[in-house]
Amino acid sequence: MRSGHNLCSRVQTGTGIAARWLGPAWSAARRAAGRALRSRWLRVGSLALIFLLTVGGADYERYLASSNRPLEAYPVLSLEGYHRLLVFAPHCDDEALGAGGLIQAALRQGMHVHVAIVTAGDGYRNAAMAEFRRPVLRPEDYVTLAERRQQESLNALAILGLDADDVTFLAYPERGLAALWWDHWSSAFPYRSPYTRRERIEYPRAFRPDAPYSGEALLDTLRAVLAIERPDLIVLPHPNDLHPDHAALSAFVLLAVEMEKAADPDFHPQLLGYLIHYGALYPQPYGLRPGASLRPPRRLENIGEWYVWRLSPEELSVKRKAVAAYTSQQRILSPYLNSFVRQNELYMAIDDVIPLGILETDSFPEADGAPPVMDDSSLPGRLDPASDSLLRRARSGGDITGLRVARLGNTVWVALDLRGHASRAYEYDLYVRVFTPQSTTTWHGRYGRTSTEGITAHGHTVWYRLDLDELGHPDLLALMAETRQRIVLDRTAWYFIRLEENPLEQIGFSSP
């Protein structure tokens, strides 16, 4: 013990002499060494935390991606009474993954079937790297990949029974649909693909060559497809799909359908959503399991009404061959793609636009206060899955459980409901795309360390105040909310509200 103490004393003495001789330089060196040590321990601690989350989180994510409900618990989808099926696919392969069996059955029953593939397939870097085997990819490499992927879709759909005339390629930029929806709506300011460096459609198979990469151009194209096909059954991406292209396309299609319905009162198609991306381990069990069933993720089971479409052994075999035809994707995603070759397919009935009339009340809030209906659980709205990831489970204040809406005169109040108490440690953002008969604009409000005027929090709810006069008296609102704590913790689907002048009708919504 003593020899150790003497050694320590000598070291301290030497340190003191060095400090006196080196002065400020020595102090700076000590501070730098301390920062380096702290940084090292922070890195070690972060790695340890990531390790614990990964080890514990894999089981939880697998649990979330599966379901205890038997397949028989879900109603069976019927095609009786339908005549024209239109399938919207964000990418070249989603059409077969989501609806390969349904397409076969619809053709066999004599239905007219058409598939619209919305992006060109020109933005998947991993597929391009595997295809061309070079570290630095050129724009023309992504264009070549897109042309190959479009041909793969034609090959796969031919296996399913469709002619090339029954397939429409819209050829918008892959991984760019979310930007078209929010940042590049106007054709005067088109989106530029970071992969192909293009701002317009230049593919020979495209439905409208030379159309700009813009939200208004895509919406007009979708409406043109709907006008030509006039489907009574539409299959599209699930609104809660976590891939940005899937979620944005769902919003675009819902908007296009709503506009076509307004133009033609006889147009009332049934909308069904298919889910491809949800969490790290969906679907379960992973890989090629043709004898297994496909069931919705645990937290999405009660969000909407799900339907099952069962595949016959022959249909399953044909779908397996069709999925195998996407060779550029099979090269890198084979286990994932094959996870959708199951004995059934899943579809969720997509809700209509929320009608919102003026709520009759004698008391109106102050400009920055909460509305008097803040505790009214019967307000129309939409549920959002809660505790649907390990991160959201650990941060209840950032876990969204739903949106509710109320209209008081020329004010619309939007309630963002949370599983835990709202806290300024998080940021709560509401994004609104506003549609008037003449134009569309956007509105963004935030509650957090810095907050937008007119936004307040009470308990588990953040309230956003929208002034319809300032928004130009819109007919339609599209809403999406997200929570952040440095990174995005949770995000809702896009929901649509149609503003009406008649008193609010209760539609049976109950808050979580």
Polypeptide structure, described:
With 512 residues, the protein is α/β, with parallel strands linked by helices. It folds into three domains: 17-65; 71-114 and 126-165 and 223-244 and 259-349, LmbE-like (Rossmann fold, 3-Layer(aba) Sandwich), CATH 3.40.50; 354-503, Sandwich (Immunoglobulin-like), CATH 2.60.40.10. The chain is built from eleven helices and 18 strands. Strands 3-2-1-4-5-7-6 form a seven-stranded mixed beta sheet, with helices on both faces. Helix 7 packs across helix 8 (244-263). The chain starts with a helix and ends in a 9-residue tail after the last strand. The relative contact order is 0.11. Mean pLDDT is 86; it is low at 1-26, 33-53 and 502-512.
SSE inventory with pairings:
Blueprint: H1 2-22, H2 24-65, E1 84-89, H3 94-108, E2 112-119, H4 125-132, H5 139-160, E3 167-172, H6 177-182, H7 215-229, E4 233-237, H8 244-263, E5 270-274, E6 306-310, H9 313-324, H10 327-338, E7 344-349, E8 354-358, E9 381-383, H11 390-394, E10 400-408, E11 411-418, E12 427-435, E13 440-447, E14 455-458, E15 461-467, E16 476-485, E17 487-491, E18 495-503
Parallel strand pairs: 1-2, 1-4, 2-3, 4-5, 8-18
Antiparallel strand pairs: 5-7, 6-7, 9-10, 10-11, 11-15, 12-13, 12-16, 14-15, 16-17, 16-18
